[in-house]
């Protein structure tokens, strides 16, 4: 069993190295479509991190350092290896899936928190840009000067935007690349406004003021909706925690009851099915609450 596990780990490490090697050997971007998708910051990513993991984290709104990503990957592999060594196959498989689910939920919650902080800072940042534009400052310098008064996720995003501009992209292209990386529709709106202004002219200050107004109205609507659906969210939380509380209570009051079920073939299958249904129900309720 140990040698099988070691072989699986070596195979996984080899797959990661193979993906990294293919990414390094990929030819330079050519053609209009590839030029549009070209991101000069992509060349600075670590070649040891698979591209699908970077894209996954970007979709969640997380821009982690390569060292942090490597620590997370190694930690996940070590925990899965320990589960395979300490538990039976079916239990280890279920526990590994639960570990991956918990990791995904935790990363998504962290990403949503980062996106929320970015959206809270964006209207005031665009308002500062608009004020500098009214004073006669150029668009690029207005964004650069306004970065001095921001912090948090928006500051990191704006620094990446300005790095792309310094590497040769237009301002609207830099915002578009950042919007794709973070999955932020708001930054894509800013990119579209800048592109329209560069291509057709007009008052970019008026457009930015309208975007600020729309963002604040959207934030107000989300807050009102969250307040009105608070009862639904609490109900979903109670329904999710109730089976876990019941199994914890039964285990504390009569541990032999659960152990007898586990050592029986039928009881073991019933427990695995119940745990799987519990996870499926929790995920379904969580997605329903997110859709509100």
Automatic annotation (TrEMBL):
One Pfam family it belongs to: T2SSF
Membrane topology (UniProt): Multi-pass membrane protein
Annotated Gene Ontology cellular component terms: plasma membrane
Residue ranges annotated for the Type II secretion system protein GspF domain, each copy included: 125-250
Location in the cell: Cell membrane
Alphabetic keyword roster: Cell membrane, Membrane, Transmembrane, Transmembrane helix
UniProt keyword annotation of Membrane present: yes
Transmembrane segments: 69-102, 232-250, 270-289
InterPro entries cross-referenced by the UniProt entry: T2SS_GspF_dom
Name of this chain's protein: Tight adherence protein B
Source organism per UniProt: Litorivivens lipolytica
């Amino acid at each position: 069993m140990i040698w099988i596990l070691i072989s699986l780990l070596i195979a996984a490490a080899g797959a990661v190295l193979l993906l990294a090697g293919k990414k390094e050997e990929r030819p330079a971007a050519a053609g209009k479509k590839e030029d549009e998708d070209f991101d000069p910051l992509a060349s600075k990513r670590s070649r040891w991190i698979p591209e699908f993991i970077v894209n996954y984290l970007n979709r969640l709104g997380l821009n982690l350092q390569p060292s942090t990503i490597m620590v997370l990957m190694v930690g996940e592999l070590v925990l899965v290896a320990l589960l395979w060594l300490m538990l039976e196959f079916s239990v280890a498989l279920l526990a590994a899936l639960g570990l991956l689910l918990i990791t995904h939920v935790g990363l998504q919650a962290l990403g949503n928190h980062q996106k929320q902080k970015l959206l809270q800072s964006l209207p005031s940042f665009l308002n500062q840009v608009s004020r500098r534009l009214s004073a006669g400052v150029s668009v690029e310098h207005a964004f650069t000067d306004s970065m001095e008064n921001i912090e948090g996720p928006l500051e990191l995003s704006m620094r990446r935007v300005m790095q792309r501009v310094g590497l040769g992209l237009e301002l609207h292209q830099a915002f578009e690349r950042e919007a794709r990386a973070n999955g932020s529709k708001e930054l894509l709106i800013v990119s579209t406004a800048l592109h329209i202004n560069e291509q057709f002219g007009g008052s970019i200050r008026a457009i930015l003021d309208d975007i600020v107004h729309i963002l604040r109205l959207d934030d107000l609507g989300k807050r009102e909706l969250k307040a009105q659906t608070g009862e639904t969210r609490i109900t979903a939380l109670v329904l999710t925690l109730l089976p876990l509380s019941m199994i914890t209570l039964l285990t504390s009051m009569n541990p032999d009851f659960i152990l007898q079920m586990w050592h029986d073939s039928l009881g073991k299958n019933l427990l695995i099915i119940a745990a799987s249904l519990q996870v499926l129900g929790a995920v379904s309720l969580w997605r329903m609450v997110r859709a509100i």
